[in-house]
Specification:
This protein has about 200 residues and is an all-beta fold. Helices cover about 0% and strands about 35% of the residues. It has strands at about 10, 20-25, 30, 35-40, 50, 55-60, 65, 70-75, 85, 105-110, 115, 120-125, 135-140, 140-145, 145-150, 160, 170, 180, 185-190, 195.
C-alpha cells in the first residue's frame, strides 16, 4: 500500500495529458481520470520526465509513456532505460531555415531506434534496423549499410532512397528540401511524407 508518511506530489514532473505524479519511499504513482495508480516496479529516486512536449518518462529500469486514449501509463516494450535518449534535435537547413523532415522525433537506446508519433501520441520501435550501424546525416535521413534511407511517422521500417550514399548531400540554398547524389535529385514531399526522386521535365 501507499506509505502515507512519505507520500507527496512530484512537482518536478509536469502534469502532461491531465495526469499528476506522486511518490512515497517505495513507488511512483499517478492520478488519471480521478483515479490513483501505482506504477509497478517504479524507482522514485530516478524517475524523470522527458523534455516538455513528449509523453515519456523513465527511471533506472523502465521507459514509460502515457496512453492518452486509455488514460494509463505504460512501459515501452524492450526499451533499455539507461541508454534511452533523444537521437537528435530537429535539424534545419541553415541556408533556408526549413526543417528537412518535419514532425519527426527519434529516440534510441543501445539496441533499437524509436519514433514518437505526434499525430497519434504514441511510441513505435523501428523494425529491421541495427542501430549500431545507422548514422543520421539529417533529421530522419540516415546512412545505413552504405545506402541512404529515410524514416517518417508512417513508416514501420527504413525506406531506401538511394544506393549512392557517398555522394548524397543537401542542395545548397534549397527552399524545397532538395537533396542530390551523383545521378539524381530528391525532395521531401510533406503531402506524401516521403523522400522521393524528382523527375526532370525535358520539354
Amino acid at each position: 500500500g501507499v506509505d502515507l508518511a512519505s507520500f507527496k506530489q512530484m512537482y518536478d514532473i509536469g502534469s502532461n495529458y491531465e495526469i499528476e505524479f506522486y511518490r512515497d519511499r517505495n513507488h511512483v504513482y499517478y492520478v488519471s481520470d480521478k483515479n490513483l495508480y501505482e506504477i509497478i516496479g517504479s524507482d522514485p529516486p530516478t524517475f524523470s520526465q522527458f523534455p516538455a512536449g513528449y509523453a515519456g518518462y523513465k527511471d533506472r529500469k523502465y521507459v514509460y509513456y502515457y496512453d492518452a486514449k486509455n488514460k494509463v501509463l505504460r512501459t515501452l516494450p524492450g526499451a533499455d532505460a539507461p541508454s534511452f535518449k533523444r537521437q537528435l534535435l530537429s535539424y534545419a537547413n541553415v541556408d533556408s531555415g526549413i526543417t528537412l523532415v518535419p514532425g519527426l522525433d527519434l529516440w534510441k537506446d543501445k539496441n533499437s531506434l524509436y519514433l514518437f508519433d505526434f499525430k497519434n501520441s504514441e511510441w513505435r520501435r523501428i523494425k529491421n534496423l541495427d542501430v549500431s550501424k545507422a548514422a543520421f546525416i539529417f533529421d530522419g535521413i540516415m546512412k545505413y549499410k552504405s545506402k541512404i534511407f529515410y524514416i517518417n511517422s508512417s513508416t514501420p521500417e527504413p525506406v531506401k532512397v538511394t544506393d549512392d550514399a557517398a555522394h548524397f548531400k543537401v542542395v545548397p540554398h534549397s527552399a524545397n528540401a532538395l537533396y542530390s547524389d551523383s545521378k539524381n535529385i530528391y525532395t521531401y514531399s510533406p503531402k506524401e511524407s516521403v523522400v522521393r526522386k524528382l523527375a526532370v521535365d525535358k520539354s
